[in-house]
């Protein structure tokens, strides 16, 4: 297939820049501890300085892959499929999620919400970033709000974001990994004083799994 033809397929969401795919245990947020198949899509311009997957940022480094192949691989493992990045909403998620749903699979997404919402989702984990705020639309659909805490000022940002999601969204505060010793006690105190929030930890890193 010619490069131009591939680009057209990517723009339609029929091919996606696939960075990696793997079967593991969900390590963060509401579904912590459950089996899930992760599909990591390349491409992100949100620019979090503490991002632990910066190699995902440049979509050109990751081969455009047919969603037929992606779905066939995912269907071998379990019923819960997590689309992550990068920022997956840079791409049209409708074709991929429709194909996954046709296979009877549950579709989850982890997103900053910085791009328009596309796709059919059973669970939307919104993790907003100050560098590029979410679209207004995604707030009302988020099932889970996960705010990364890097310093004490991030609690103010977390409350601003919590005011925008629906009352049914589950609220999480998660320490940024490199600052976990410093900010985890702050998060514990904050949740105890503001029990609408829950603590999220990157348990997969403690378990030494992907």
UniProtKB/TrEMBL annotation:
Q: Name one GO biological process term.
A: tRNA queuosine(34) biosynthetic process
Q: Does the keyword Repeat apply?
A: no
Q: Which GO terms describe its molecular function?
A: 4 iron, 4 sulfur cluster binding; carbon-nitrogen lyase activity; magnesium ion binding; S-adenosyl-L-methionine binding
Q: Which PROSITE patterns match?
A: RADICAL_SAM
Q: In which pathway does it act?
A: Purine metabolism; 7-cyano-7-deazaguanine biosynthesis
**Binding positions ([4Fe-4S] cluster):** 44, 48, 51
> Which named protein is this?
7-carboxy-7-deazaguanine synthase
Q: Which organism is it from?
A: Flavobacterium zepuense
The gene name reads: queE
């Amino acid at each position: 297939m010619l490069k131009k033809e591939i680009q057209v397929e990517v723009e339609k969401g029929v091919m996606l820049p696939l960075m990696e795919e793997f079967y593991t245990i969900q390590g963060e947020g509401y579904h912590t501890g459950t089996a899930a198949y992760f599909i990591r899509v390349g491409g992100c311009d949100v620019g979090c300085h503490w991002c632990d997957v910066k190699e995902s940022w440049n979509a050109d480094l990751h081969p455009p892959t047919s969603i037929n192949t992606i779905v066939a691989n995912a269907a071998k493992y379990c019923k819960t499929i997590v689309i992550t990045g990068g920022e997956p909403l840079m791409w049209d998620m409708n074709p991929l999620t429709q194909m996954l749903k046709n296979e009877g699979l549950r579709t989850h997404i982890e997103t900053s919400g910085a791009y328009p919402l596309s796709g059919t989702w059973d669970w939307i984990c919104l993790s907003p970033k100050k560098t590029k705020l979410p679209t207004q639309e995604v707030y009302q659909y988020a099932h889970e709000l996960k705010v990364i805490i890097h310093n004490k000022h991030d609690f103010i940002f977390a409350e601003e974001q919590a005011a925008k999601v629906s009352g049914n969204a589950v609220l999480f505060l998660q320490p940024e990994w490199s600052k976990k010793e410093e900010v985890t006690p702050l998060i514990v105190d904050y949740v105890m004083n503001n029990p609408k929030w829950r603590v999220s930890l990157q348990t997969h890193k403690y378990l030494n799994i992907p």
